[in-house]
Fold each of these.
Amino acid sequence: MNLPKRYSLIVVTVFAVTLFFGCESNFKDVQKINFSEFVPASDNDTINIKYTDSGRISGILISRKMLDYSNLDFPFTEFPKGIDVTLYDKKQKRTFIRGNYAVSYKNTGIIDLIGKVKITSEAGQVLETEQLYFDQKNEWFYTERKFKLTDAKGVSNGQGIDFSKDFKVINSQRISGEIESDEE
């Protein structure tokens, strides 16, 4: 009489184990359904984009790689192999921007430039830093990182700076260096 109970216990155990492993397999499939892959909507090599405003070129963007993530809830464009940008003001004076990596956030209009960022104006002003943000709407650059600013008045180093795209307005914090002053 004990023998049938053992068999029924073994049968129930085998059934429970089979059911457990069967549910595990289905659970992983359900997890895959809810997983959305983080893949770009488009992947472009060697791009050269010209931006215009009222028939005039306002900017030129060149990059060896562009990944467009416009398919996400918070869309952005990534430039993993660097970026070269030329901005034009209304008088067609140019500002040159270079960085090893960049991300442009579509909803905010902010561009995050990272890695050996260098901005040069036609007037000869040069700013170098490791990370710099550009607010496209207000045409304003800013960083809290260390920077080096070179212009006709001298060289200054500091940490934290914000300035207009034409370098006409510059606000810097914690600076050191030799700069000529117009004040007497």
Amino acid sequence: MRTAFVLGGGGLLGAAEVGMLRALLERDLVPDLVLGTSVGALNGLVVAADPTLGAVTRLRELWRDVAESNAVYADGALRQVRRAVRTGTHLHSPDALRQRLEAEYAETTFADLACEFRCVASCIERSAEHWFDAGPVVPAVLASAAVPGLLPPAEVGGEHFLDGGIVNSVPLGKAVELGATRVFVLQVGRLDRPLTVPRRPWEVARVSFEIARRHRFVRELAELPPHVEAHVLPAGGGAADDSPLSYRDAGAVASRIRTAYDLGRAYLDEQGL
């Protein structure tokens, strides 16, 4: 059996994936393959480097730091406006995120990781889904997490990349393509909630993106070969997580981790795992 962990994107909602990882690893459900998109690439890198409960400890420390400082999205409104006017493309600097990653993984390559890891980004020049699976891990993860409008495009190897969620937010199909026969999907909770008709201009873009994201995942889930076992772990959360400002709301990090852990344990009990 080849087991894959598929970690989807979703900004600070990705804290839920830490609780799911704890629930899985406590039961010795260990990945042979880790696939990540956006914040799922960040969480996925840590577990691929150390697919034990030690990774959960490290992630909880990292996410606690995020909750206390929210350094990645901590810019004030005036600084955001100035940066948006100056660059024309983004509100926040990637420096804090880069520094956090380089502090621990600056010399790490994909080949150095304890288990196979890949992360996805959206190539601007080729208008294509691009999977990183070799070379330094930090530039690849930064490319996967380059949220449009919030962070600038990331340059890797002479090409420019935006967030992997644009092309493959929950890469279930890629796990099957790479030979996984058991897949645990760690998603941030949006898949659990039905969409409602948008009533404000900013809701139109969110709902449109959610349709695109969910359509691909639902199709890939329906098309799974009979020999592949898939488990979509529940994340919890609610409508407040869909706010336009939820991406920078670090206040609920601890509760998201706890809720996803409790729901994950209950789900695994139901499945006899």
Amino acid sequence: MSVTLSGPASGRTIIMLEEPARNPVAQDALRARLQVAMFRIVTIPIVDGLSAKSIVGFLDQLQIASGLLVGDGAGAELAWDLAATHRERFTGLVAIDRGHPRVPNADGIIRDGDCPAVEVDTTILAEGRSAHAVARASRRHVHADFRLVDLAGPRSSQHFTAQLATEIVMRALSR
């Protein structure tokens, strides 16, 4: 697996958990915006068998003590798990269209009924009624600042990339 580092070594760290097949052009544009803003970006591709424990191991090998977690899809699910179980390692969480593991998803499935609450500042970007309902229900499992944001457009749009970059910067600079 290819974990990549980009941006200045002295910048605040953003840990992006990415599904490789999910719009690589938009992901590259997002990383470029964050690098211009002087953030250090750790990109970890989501692959079968990747766990919260292995992500913490990668961060230890890279000597990264903390950072802001960002995830979409399966990346968001892992980000929630990391924020809940390794709270001392992360400064915040930005999740796209995913809620806390104890909240039933749009299909009524609870991923982890025993998942602890998250104690880091959290932003959820949500699109659609069911994603909003899951996000609102997740609020009770976040014991820190919570922000729910409507997605500005399709994930392939420049509006989405700009909005996500803004939310990441706001969350990263809030601590």
Amino acid sequence: MEIAQVKTVGKAALRAVKQGMYYTNITPMPFRILADLTDRCNFRCPTCSKWRVKPGEEMTTSDWKEVLAKLKNKSLTGRISFAGGEATLRPDLCELIKYAKESRLNVTVVTNGFLLTEKLLREFERAGLNGLVVSLNGVNRATHDESRGVSGSFDRIMNILPIMSKFRYEVNLETIIMETNLEQLILLVKLSKQYDLYGIHFQALGDVGAHYALINHKMPDAAHDWYKEARFWIRNPAKASQVLNQLIRMQKDGYRILNPSHQLKRMIQYYSAPETIKEMKCMGGVSSLYIDPYGEVRVCYGFEPIGNIRESEPLTLWRSNGAREIRRKVKHCDKMCRLLNNNY
């Protein structure tokens, strides 16, 4: 069995375990850790509200090291993702990667790619990075830069893209499916293969408030029909269905499209009749332990924190009454963010 097939089988097994946790309410530990190192961002993405809010005082390098030491052996997969805001704005990022590795964590960094250089990529390798996720929303300058709110962002990524695969960690692209890039999704898959990247992951477009500043208490409630006025919402669901079905076929033909096929099928439904996504069971409460830049811990990205990791042990928080209450809320939640993050 090839490595890709092994990983597919592994993901299916983990999904089965996750569903078991959801239905039985037996949640020994999270599948992975998501650590947002900062609320700050150097982009002005129209699809995000995080940059519109003044951030608070973030945890220091020393604070994060204490947190990472606590997280050793505290997730089923041993995975942690460093994100933000924009994680590369932290000058201590490589130091934190190295420290996380010493705590036996498998580390991925999620970035908009603007500050990546060959020197930084090499430093990532020396620090022991396992995976790098780079956001790219189009195959041309106009499409990508419009979605990021910063001129030159496309050129920055394309200048560094040809050398990304030469390092020992896996690099994959991440793309939001939007009206403006629908015709480019197939080309993005081929671009990923052309540069010998690990693959590409697609994300559904959500309400602008779905990516919110974590200094706030919880995700703001969106209007039930927010998508009708959303700038990047797909206006031709038949075309979206055609493209997504082609992606599913390409995946079967061996292209490294990292979404589970059932999620791609859900996206067809989502862009055709978005409110029907509420019928989908959300695994948010049992998937991940979220840690924000201030040490606050959530079991669902959309709900309020259950405590601060500087004051409590991670598994104590994960198994707390507060966490159980959030999981109960998740089961009755009608937010439309189900296809975002890792809740499938």
